[in-house]
Amino acid sequence: MYTSKTKIVVRYAETDQMGIAHHSNYPVWYEAARTDFIKGIGMSYSDIEKKGYMLPLLELKSCYKGSAKYEDELLVTTRIKQISFTRVVFYYEIYNKKDNTLINYGETMHVWTDKKLKPLNLKKSEPDLYNLMLGVTKEE
């Protein structure tokens, strides 16, 4: 199973008055990690969009187990948790690299659509892309 690893350094603008990374940044970090994941399997998000496919968000879950502070170095691991003909669920874990502590985990569910945001069956519309994504979910 393919898992990508994305490095994030907490910026000052991402912290609140207490000096802790604000909870609203975690979905942004998920997006950066998801972009790296897709690039890591051999295609970029922009390549997918050029083919006429979109991947809008349906659901977001995020569990906070710890906190991150200004200039903390984080590692976001990303993998596909579940894939169907119409949807894909990405799973994320965020670790503070200082002590390898899990500070957050979550997932995002997306639906495959055309440019008009009409849901579609990816296996029928773009079998190569579907098989590429399905292939990275298999245990090695």
The CATH class, by name, is: Alpha Beta
The CATH topology corresponds to: Thiol Ester Dehydrase, Chain A
Characterize the main sheet.
5 strands, antiparallel
What is the mean predicted local confidence, pLDDT? Answer: 95
The CATH H-level homologous superfamily = Hotdog Thioesterase
Number of domains: 1
Rg calc: 16 Å
Q: Identify the overall geometry.
A: elongated
Order of helices and strands: EHHEEEEHH
- What multimeric state do the chains show? single chain
In DSSP terms (H or I, runs of 4 or more residues), the helix count works out at 4
- Name the structural class: alpha+beta
Description:
The chain is built from four helices and five strands, in the order E-H-H-E-E-E-E-H-H. A hairpin with a 4-residue loop joins strand 4 (87-96) and strand 5. It starts with a strand and ends in a 5-residue tail after the last helix. The model has no long low-confidence stretch (mean pLDDT 95). The chain has helices spanning 25-40, 45-50, 122-125, 127-135, and strands spanning 4-9, 57-64, 73-83, 87-96, 101-111. It has a single domain (4-135), classed as Hotdog Thioesterase (Thiol Ester Dehydrase, Chain A). The longest helix is centred in the first third of the chain and has 16 residues, at 25-40. Helices cover 25% and strands 33% of the residues. The protein has 140 residues and is of the alpha+beta class. The chain has a five-stranded antiparallel sheet with strand order 1-3-4-5-2.
